[in-house]
Every structure is written in C-alpha cells, then in structure tokens.
Amino acid sequence: MPETVYISIENLSTEAGTFLTPTWIGVHDGRFDLFDRFRPASVGLERLAEDGNTEVLSQEFNYQSGIDRLIVGGDRTPSVIDPREIAQISLELNTENPNHQYLSYASMFIPSNDIFIANEDSRSIDLFDDTGNLNSGEYIIYGDRLWDAGTEVNDENENSTAFAGQEQPNTGTSEGGVVSPSSGYINGGRLESLYPGAENLVDSDREIAKLTVHDGSGIVTNPNLVELTITVTNLAPENGTLLSPVWYGFSDGTYETYDPNRPASPGLESLAEDGDASILANEFSLGDWGYVQGTINGNKGADPGILDTEETVTHKVILDRSQSSSRYFNYASMILPSNDAFVANGNGIAHEIFDRNGNFLGVDLTVKGSDVLDAGTEINDELPSNTAFFGQTTPNTGENQNRVVTPHPGFKPEGSILNAADFSNADFTQPNYDLARITITSSQVPTRREIYGFLDIVSFRQFYTPSIIERDYIVNNLPQYRSQGIAFLGGDEATGDPIYRFFNTSTGQHLYTPSEVERDAVLGLKNYNFEGIGFYAYKQQIEDTEPLYRFYNTELDTHFYTTSPAERDGYLSNEDFVAEGDGGIAFYVDTI
C-alpha cells in the first residue's frame, strides 16, 4: 500500500553552536551496512565524514534496490542544517515493498576533520510493522553517538578542517584508522575556542540532533521506543578502587561476557588488563544477540573516562522494547588499579530490562567486592610497570598467565597497591565492600500495549497476545493462524485490571478472564494450564474505552471475542453462541 512518510532532522545545538551537512538517508531491505565499528570506513563514508559529499555514498547504496535522498537545510546557511533548524523531506513508499522497510541516515558534523552521525545498525529504524502500519518515532542522537571515521587526522587546522577554513575537499592528513566513537574536539583547541558551547561534546546527555519519522502530522505514535537512563555510581570509599569506563550492551539473553573457569575472550582480556572496551565492543557487534551498546565515562577525575570514588554518571539510550534484542542488560568494567581484575555479568539473562510482553522492569544492582573476577590473562604481580593506573605506561605489558576466569583472590596483603596512600582503602575483600551501583530507569514507558489477534482458520479458535516475540513466532511457524493485526489496545498496568490467560489442552483454545472467581475455578480444572497475566484491561468502563465481548460456542466448545458491535449482533442472533458476562461484555479495552 502506498504511504507518504516524512523524515525530519533537527539540529539540537545551541544558537552559536555546531552544524550538520545535508543529511543522507537511504530506505532499504535491511542489508545495507553504512559502517562497522572498529573497521575502515568505505570511500563513500570517508567523503561524507571529511567533506559532507554524499555522491560516492549514494553510488555505493545504489548497488541494491532502495531509495536514497538528501535532507537539505536552508534556514540561514545554504544547504547546511543550522543550529536549531529543522529540515524535512517526504518519501513515497510502499508498505508491501521489502526494499522500503528500513531507514539509514548519515551526516557530517561540522566543523570537524571527520566526525559524523549515523545509525550503526542497518535495522535499528524499522519503518513499518508486519501489518503495514508506520512505526513513527523520534530518535535522539547524543554526544556519545558521534563517530570518528578514522580517515583524517583530527588536527583542527584551518586548511584541513571542513567549515572552519578549509577551501578544498580532501586536503587533510590521511589517518588510515577505523570507525570508532569520537573523542570530540581537542580540549582547549582551536574548535572549542571558535565554538565555546562545544566543550564536553561527547557527553552522553548532550543532545546533538533528532531524527523524526512521521506521517505528516508530526505526531509520533510508536509506543515501543523508550528512552532509558543508565546511572552508574562508584561506591568505593575515598582512596578505594576506581572503575574503567563501563561497557554495556543490550541483548536477547544469548550473549555472555565470560564463562566461569573458561579462558577470557580477547575483548575481555583487553578490558580486564587495560580498561579498553573497543575489542569487546567489536566482539559484541559480530553477533545476532543485539546492537545497542556503548561505554559510560566518568568526568570527575583527572584521567579521562575513569569513574572516581563516589562519582555518579548518567547515560541515556533509546531502545525498541518490542525487539528481543532489547530485553537484557550486560555490563563490564575493569577494577583499577589491577593487573586484570574486572566485574561483569557472565549470565546473559541476569538483568532483565523488559519482560516478554515489553513491560519495563528496570535494573537496580549493587556490585560488591565479592563479585570481582580475575581474567586469568595476566599475573597479579602488582608491579607499577605492569599494573594499569599504577604506573603502567603501555598497554598489554604484563606477564601472560594463560589461565581461566575465576573469582579474584584480592590484592596482595603486603603488595604494592594496598601500601599506596591513594589506594589504602582498595581492599575489596573486606566485608560489605561495595564497588558500584547500576540503575536503569525510564520516565516515559508507554502504558497502553498493542494486543495482536490471530484466527486459526482450521478450528476458528482465536488467540491474543501483547508479546512481539510470541506474535512473530506464530507468523513464522504456524501458518494456520491468520493475523488480524492489532485487535485492540491493552490497558494501563498501573490502573487497569489483570486479564488472566489459560490454555485448554483438550481443545487448543485460550481463555481470557478478568474475574478472580473464574480464574480460581478454572485453576481446578485439569485440562487448563494457567499462563499468568496475558495483558491488562478494565472491569468497568472508563473514558476512551470500548467493550470487548465474549461468547461461548456450545457446538465447538470454543470462546469467541470481539470489539465489533456488528460481530456482536451476529453472535447474539445465532443460537449456537451464548453471551457471557454482562450482556456479553467480558471487559473493556482502550480504543485504537
């Protein structure tokens, strides 16, 4: 079905702040990969990141079917998207065309040598759901989502920095590096002096830009995009242990940072020995378990990124709660100083953020001294030349151990670390020694849930679920179930009533009831399996709700549900159907 989709980009910089080049967008089937973290940029991305030129990138994109366009500014500076400017474009798409399913974007951040914004995962912006409805949404790009193309040295010189004096394209010094998170402008350098508001450019709470997908109304209707706040506090006492920048990754539960009593991966070794999460991040990006990851840096101490004692930092991230890859939280951080001490969750399902129905659970965990692990990759000699943050000047310089991940025995009682005044309280083996607290919260989790309906075209049984995972399993594995799309909206968990779900093992039919009396009666029937709370609705009608009717067919021994008055009247006129509840009303649901 044809659909006009509007895509806008808003420069969230202050009035005297930074700019964006015309934003390239591409709509595709999910296979177009703009870049891979810690791998060289393509020629097209290099041209965009160094000079804002999208011609080669467009040529690279056009090797496959899809649509690409430019979102061009024009507020004050020709083509460039000025601070606080909103630029927009409309696309004529077809909801049934697989090449119109996903959106990628990229824009050079100026002035800079080769900083850019783009979505790392080609499927992170899904334009249409499985019934063809537009997934409108807002995507905020924060400072820690600025990328460095690794193609040009960040010298900030006048003759080589786009939009800051450069007269000819491609004139900077080649770097020959890889795409990685940007470190921002040079501290106290030329660009910070030209743009005083650009200090702390890569802070996790600094808003760089906002991409919006909508139907022309400007209204965002996708209830599944959720902004989360990750807060990390170093709980160690003064002169206690420090934390390296905390790596995090959201997954479907199949990813594990380590296995006890097994060798550490190269990525975990690099993190545990030197606090460098880049290889671990690359390992995470190679799997199918998830795509949202990052590092949380401290900003209190003298050393960049390290979380000082009693320091608290916050970090924002946007997740799609309908995706299984958003369900679980993973983290890892090096304990400083040490040879290879670290903390991480080895159990991939230990920290559940969303349940299987997409309900937000959050996290509030305390990392204790007893949780510290030894990577088994470097001997714990505590020599200053081998020990990170204790005198070591070059990474990966300790003596190899070639063992496995085990609980850390603690620092040497008479060793170098605990004898140092700066770390006199770093003995994490002491009773009640707390290292860190990590919380994940959200103030904007939508409360109304889409309930998906299915009809078994063989037995005429109906099935309802709020679970995207369950929905997709049925679509992909049970062809006799015909999708009815969004049947109705579930209610607010805080004010609604639970709707209990049972499975009849004799008929293969599901029963839904808000009644505790009926629930308890059915619990006593051997042929019914209780499946818990299916979703939330309302026993009494409130504003913006409509009745959901329940009928029992005596011949088929099956219940039928509908919100349609016409279907209700059809059931009432058929003697094989018996209306249950108050005139057939089982409960009330939110109107779509």
TrEMBL record:
Supply the InterPro entries for this chain: DUF5648, Spondin_N, Spondin_N_sf
Q: Which residues form the DUF5648 domain?
A: 459-589
Biased composition (Polar residues) is annotated at 159-173
Question: Which residues lie within the region annotated Disordered?
Answer: 159-179
Q: Which Gene3D superfamilies did the record assign? A: F-spondin domain
Pfam families, per this entry? DUF5648
Please report the name of this protein according to its UniProt entry. Spondin domain-containing protein
